[in-house]
Amino acid sequence: MALSIRLSRGGSKKRPYYRIVVADARSPRDGRFIEKIGTYNPLLAKDSPERVKLDGDRAKHWLGVGAQPTDRVARFLDAAGVRERAARNNPNKGEPGEKAKERAEERAEKLKAAQEAEAEAVVAAEVEAATEEPTAEAEQVAEATAEETPAAE
User: Fold this and answer.
1) Which of 38, 57, 98, 128 is disulfide-compatible with 20, CB 3.0–4.6 A?
2) What is the topology classification, in CATH, of domain 3-80?
3) Across 68-84, average pLDDT
4) The whole model's pTM is what?
5) Is the pLDDT at 135 greater than 80, yes or no?
6) To the nearest 10°, the Cα dihedral for 92, 98, 103, 107?
7) What is the pLDDT of residues 4-42, one digit of tens each?
């Protein structure tokens, strides 16, 4: 018989309360269990001593018999000092998925194309301004600024 140390949910809707139980791995989550070895109330503050209550001696006994804790219960056992839990390392956890990477590449290509088009428009405007013959108004403005500059000195 495969034993597991796991959480069995109680409480009402939106108000969870869990019992830490030793049960046959094949029995349903909230079904028959062999022994209740603690409780977990996720609604309490993380630093509250009432949040996780665990009978360490019974937990050691069941681990010695061969019961396997679930990930969450293994965290509780580690915090209680009953059983050491190996730290996990997932370096790819924060990496975006395939589709997100494709969207980012498309966005980068569109941005690059827009910048190139903008640069071409600026160059075209400069070339057009350079080839344009000065008008009479532009000559008058140039003469007026030339007259004001020496007077200011």
Assistant:
1) 38
2) S16 Ribosomal Protein; Chain: A; (3.30.1320)
3) 89
4) 0.58
5) no
6) 60
7) 999 999 999 999 999 999 999 999 999 999 999 999 999
Mean of all residue pLDDT scores within the chain: 85
Q: How far apart are CA 8 and CA 80, in angstroms?
A: 19
Say how many residues make up the chain: 153
Structure tokens at 133: 């013959």
Q: How far is CA 127 from CA 15, 54, 87, 137, 150, in A?
A: 71, 80, 64, 20, 31
